[in-house]
Amino acid sequence: MVDFEHAKVDVWNWQDDYLQPMQLVNLKKDLARNFLAVTYPKYNRNIIPLTDQTFNSTALTPDGNEEYILARTDFGKRIASQWEGSTRDDIYLVSTKTGNKELILSNFSGNAILSPDAKYIVYFDQDKGSWNSYQVSSKKKTVLNDGIPASFADEENDMPTAAQGYGMAAWSPDFKGIYVNSRYDIWYFNLDGSNKSILTNGYGAASQTTFRYLPLKREEDREQATTLDYKKGGFLTSFDNKTKESGFYQFKGQHNDPKSLLVEAKTFRNISSSADQQTILYSKEDYMNSPNIYTNTIKFKDELQLSNINQQQANYNWGTAELVHWTTPEGNQAEGILYKPENFDPAKKYPIIAYFYEKLSDGLYTYQPPAPTPSRLNIPYFVSNEYLVFAPNISYKTGHPGKSAEEYINSGMRYLAQNAWVDSTKMGIQGQSWGGYQVAHLITRTNMYAAAWTGAPVVNMTSAYGGIRWQSGMSRQFQYEHTQSRIGKTLWEAPELYIENSPLFHLDKVKTPVVIMANDNDGAVPWYQGIEMFTALRRLNKPVWMLNYNGDEHNLILRQNRKDIQIREQQFFDHFLKGAPAPAWMKKGVPATEKGIDWGFEL
User: Fold this and answer.
1) Distance between CA atoms of 193 and 416, rounded to whole angstroms?
2) What's the domain count of the chain?
């Protein structure tokens, strides 16, 4: 048939495993699917299929030479991903000799790992927050952390879903034990449950320092299983959760505190070692110093700087970063980062912009290049141009994410406004995606901000709840019920919470000028959310502008668009927070007839 006689139609069926948009996103991958099999030509055996189209994934031992593999399937449970975000799995042990499949875990949520010798399955049960083992020969299951006074699931989880684990650190050399992470420390469990110990001696929890094992393997060795021999000792990375300092420690034996080797107010990355493991290579940075490469001896006594990039930064007014602590109106302890210009003068008054997402303070010693950003606030650029920038942490209560943002962001800004060098009449807010939602919410609840910039915001949780994340093809329902949006209930169970947390229903209270970025190729937040916000504020005769970067994504990809938004963002905040003239795009707009001819930048 000729093309014009072919109907072009997608058929959506309520019993489909996956929504049609998700099927279309994964079409190329699904058409190329293949399934693991094994053959023994030496014994004239036929090909033995190990999995089929009902299985999602398989896992072999590192060398792939053991009898068993691990296989996962969510067949029959996939529809629930629409509101759960993920699916529960059945975990099978599959024999490569016979193809026989033995069900080990049913309706399971978490991580399962096959030991390198295939004698055990080790798994973290996300529902119970527990580490467990399954012995292949005896079929015995053992709760490994039973009686241990530490949590192995994320203690800071504030989403209405079971917390994820902190992960595995290493195997014992004989593969009869496993090292796993708690929030601060590293623990050892015999897989048969006969022995439990703590590698870091509880020093992590006592000092609020997070320790993680640092295996000094070269790249070509990393396909082998990571092992840890406490008798030989080894190295740890450290992160002080109070000061945000990081560094390196050494351990040897058990029941000993780790020994500090190098701890600085820096961020260390790209860590590797020489072939003989006597020389360590790493990059080091903080907010004021861009990453450079260093070497050090295995005792961390002879640091040598190898590079000195970005020397041109010395020609610019840079900035500083410091931790700020305050108490919220609800009595919660809070912290955030305050960025000040390098030429900060406490006798002057500075405009201030709050930039936020969830928790950002662990990045105190992270370098931020002043390149045009995809969407977030270009912190070093604004600080260099004599703004203060504040990045507060936010903790959330299920059902009330908007009120949580109010509690932490507004109280943090009011706390800073007590300083004579903060101009409390010239405060702004900026956020992207989840941060953009919080910007939209805040301006419906307070008039303390003189200007607001929101990127890819959700303003109507009732319509966004039924939307699609077009990049993945997934429904958005899971976000509201179980993850970031933190409502914790369906739209029909708690419509009042969806309305309370939807800025759209409260936009009549807005008095803050606001710019919206909503792009027509956004694969995460439907761009009609930005349209709903713009048209509502326009109907209410509120000062609002919207930028749609044609064909660009949730976070801007094209550099010319990143440069464009940087200029407009500076002009917007300069006008409302510094009293600079408004540019033409704000005063009279850019008509479609002038698109691509006049950018509206002139003041």
Assistant:
1) 52
2) 2
